[in-house]
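Exercise 7. Given the encoded structure of a 373-residue chain, write a plausible sequence.
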């Protein structure tokens, strides 16, 4: 199959590029979401005649706009659509793809600032095949999207992308966090069967290389009680596992009065919008949530082990978020959460890293694409 696929890519070079076609990918076909979704929405709003193609792993997403055609990831038709699209928009690395001189590739990436070391920060931990693929992918990229001075520098030094164009106007997915209404919040809560007056904590840990579920060992009833004691009201916890392991959320027991499985909810940004607080471990999601300046904590019971396996980009002492390694520490951090001190740490962190979300990143990205047509 691999040989046939590569042969088809070579044959694809003979197919003419359609100047108004844009093909989008999100985590290799997983739903209508992340940065590609919001760029697509901006293109639709531009009212220009654009042929929109969305890559799917399985069925057509229910929330995919009607103006999209779909194509199955790594099918032969996928190779044709990729070979004839004017612009590729993706948030992950590509395998095998062969871009032509009159095609353009926008790499949005799927993280912003990150807790853990990635890409060329840890090439020895990624494996030779991944490094080879990542270098090849980076060599085809025409533009990347950034939300801070630090992220732009990271692209230059650690993504095998030393000289290409970077649009530093924010991440398209975060536009939503700066532009939403109470009606949006109500709609999302209804979709999750959560009452309007229920407060929510979003627990969104990253994955482990061995897909180990035992590290997600928060005592949920104890955490719920601490939240209600410190902040008042009725609380529930939304569990959102990483896309690499989200199906493992089916193996967890859920008390509906305490824990809700939000791993299948299509849009992470909408979960931020309804969350009154967040807990993660080493995931970059906390830097998106930081933009709305609500309480956040880090919880990880495997800090020493993870340092050996992946290592950390930031020193925990340089972060505005308290790190908890046990349920005792987590309970104490919630009960003694100081909102004023937290706000001051958030402001200092934003300033130090030059965070620059504009609320219009999707528009800037769409404009770049339209200018290439």
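Solution.
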């Amino acid at each position: 199959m691999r040989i046939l696929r590569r042969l088809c890519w070579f044959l694809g070079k003979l197919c003419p590029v359609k100047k108004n076609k844009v093909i989008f990918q999100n985590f290799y076909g997983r739903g209508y979401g992340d940065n590609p979704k919001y760029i697509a929405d901006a293109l639709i709003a531009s009212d220009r005649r654009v042929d929109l193609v969305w890559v799917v792993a399985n069925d057509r997403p229910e929330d995919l706009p009607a103006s999209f055609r779909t194509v199955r990831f790594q099918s032969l038709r996928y190779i044709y659509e990729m070979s004839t699209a004017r612009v590729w928009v993706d948030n992950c690395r590509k395998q095998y793809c062969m871009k032509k001189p009159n095609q353009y590739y926008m790499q949005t990436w799927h993280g912003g600032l990150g807790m853990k070391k990635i890409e060329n920060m840890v090439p020895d931990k990624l494996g030779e095949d991944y490094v080879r693929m990542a270098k090849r992918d980076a060599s085809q990229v025409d533009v990347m999207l950034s939300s801070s001075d630090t992220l732009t520098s990271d692209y230059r030094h650690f993504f095998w992308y030393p000289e290409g164009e970077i649009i530093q106007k924010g991440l398209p997915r975060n536009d939503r966090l700066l532009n939403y209404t109470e009606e949006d919040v109500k709609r999302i809560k209804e979709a999750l069967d959560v009452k309007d007056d229920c407060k929510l904590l979003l627990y969104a840990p990253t994955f482990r290389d061995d897909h180990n579920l035992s590290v997600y060992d928060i005592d949920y009833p104890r955490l719920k009680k601490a939240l209600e004691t410190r902040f008042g009201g009725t609380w529930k916890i939304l569990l959102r596992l990483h896309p690499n392991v989200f199906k493992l959320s089916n193996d967890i027991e859920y008390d509906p009065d305490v824990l809700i499985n939000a791993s299948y909810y299509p849009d992470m940004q909408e979960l931020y919008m309804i969350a009154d607080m967040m807990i993660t471990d080493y995931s970059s999601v906390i830097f998106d949530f930081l933009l709305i300046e609500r309480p956040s904590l880090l919880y990880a019971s495997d800090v020493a082990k993870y340092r050996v396996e992946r290592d950390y980009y930031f020193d925990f002492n340089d972060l505005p978020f308290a790190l908890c390694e046990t349920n005792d520490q987590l309970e104490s951090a919630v009960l003694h959460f100081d909102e004023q001190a937290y706000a001051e740490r958030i402001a200092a962190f934003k300033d130090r890293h030059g965070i620059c979300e504009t609320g219009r990143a999707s528009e800037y990205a769409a404009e770049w694409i339209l200018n290439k047509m």
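Remark. The mean pLDDT is 94. Students should compare their own answers with the one above.
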